[in-house]
Design a protein that fits this description.
about 200 residues, 5-stranded parallel β-sheet, globular, alpha/beta, about 45% helix, Rossmann fold
């Protein structure tokens, strides 16, 4: 296809359907292209508390997680046509805002070499719907997945909209099929796939 893979990021709060949509796109692309899936974990931030030293260590670990994903993606340049990312730097920053970590912007500046994705798909979902989807897939919702925390994360994403290019907002309140059609239409519009 091309020398450099197209990097497509799937982002938003838990329960938005991003992982489901990533899998659907992967299954469609894999028949004709070389596709790699990368997932970034932001869970260290969930352990923030009132201890300054502990929080600084968690912020450092968060930076390491971002760096690990970058290192994982970099050697794939000539081996894959697409890299699909379940979360990326923007997701980390949104959750950093959720936990009140302003200093993570410093980590962002330090990681200036992280590639800008060719497209970030932001799955905009109502928080109540997201919570009901989380409940359906898990017997119990963990303490970090409540209305208040997800709403804070959502606001964190919205703060970042203007600082990230190549962003498309997908209405994730629809059915899986409708969302999937919107994802494909967006990729066609952006010339990242053909019909």
């Amino acid at each position: 296809m091309q020398n450099k893979p197209k990097i497509i990021v799937f982002s938003e709060i838990d329960g938005s359907g991003k992982s489901t949509q990533l899998k659907l796109l992967y299954n469609e692309l894999i028949t004709n292209y070389r596709v790699f899936i990368s997932k970034i974990e932001y869970m260290p931030l969930n352990d923030m508390n009132k201890s300054l030293i502990r929080n600084l260590l968690i912020e450092f670990k968060s930076g390491i997680e971002i760096l690990k994903q970058t290192i994982e993606i970099h050697p794939k340049d000539n081996k894959f046509d697409y890299i699909l990312c379940d979360r990326y730097l923007m997701c980390y920053l949104a959750y950093a805002y959720m936990y009140g970590i302003e200093s993570i912007e410093l980590i962002r500046k330090m990681l200036f070499f992280i590639k800008n994705p060719d497209l970030t798909l932001y799955f905009d979902v109502d928080v109540d719907l997201a919570l009901s989807r989380i409940k359906e897939r898990n017997s119990e919702i963990n303490k970090h997945e409540n209305y208040e925390s997800l709403m804070h994360a959502k606001k964190g994403y919205e703060k970042l909209f203007n600082s990230f290019g190549n962003l498309e907002i997908i209405d994730a309140n629809k059915s899986v099929g409708e969302i999937n059609n919107n994802v494909k239409d967006t990729l066609i519009k952006r010339k990242l796939i053909t019909r």
